[in-house]
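User: I'm curious whether this sequence folds into something compact or stays loose and floppy. Could you predict its structure so I can see for myself?
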Amino acid sequence: MLTGSPEAHSSETGRTDRRSVLVLPHARIAQVNDHFCGPATAQMLVRSRIGAGPGQADLGERMTGPAGTDRTAMRDTLTAELGREYAVRTLAEGEPLTQAQRAQLFTDVRAAADAGYGIALCVLTQDGGPRPSWFPDRPGDPIDHWLAVFGYDVPGERILVADPAVWGLDGLPPGTGSHWIAVADLARYTKVYVY
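Assistant: Here's the prediction. I'll summarize afterward.
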């Protein structure tokens, strides 16, 4: 569990007006079933900001349908719960992000985190397509999965994600489910984010 005040480091130039690394206080919350990654992501984002909020069952009723969590439902729920207008940025599904889209993703992550808010990000893989190194290897099983984003590292060009799934991946801090992912790696699989 990561708690406390945001961890911030000034840039190497000595300027303190722009952070180079920021980690927002948060705690990972595991999804309660196979299709509640969206509600668990929303729950993490709400609780990280206000310390309380609705449970996953309530969020699941509001947010999920037969196809999982809709991006509009994610946006509307975060806006209602946090009193901040969230927006949806939809990208080309199944296609790697362009350099401009990658830069925009990192800019949006930084702007939200600098304001004290995390974002929701959805990753997608196609049947038989490449899979992220940070997901379990289940050949032929496509991924359509929400993650919560709670920080950035400018020099390393990475973002900090909290994954509501319980994968047991090597290299994760025990019990946290939060880990750094290179923007370039994440950009191969991002289909939409709510910021």
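Summary: The first strand starts at residue 7 and ends at 10. The beta strands are 7-10, 19-23, 64-65, 68-69, 88-90, 119-124, 144-153, 158-162, 178-182, 190-194.
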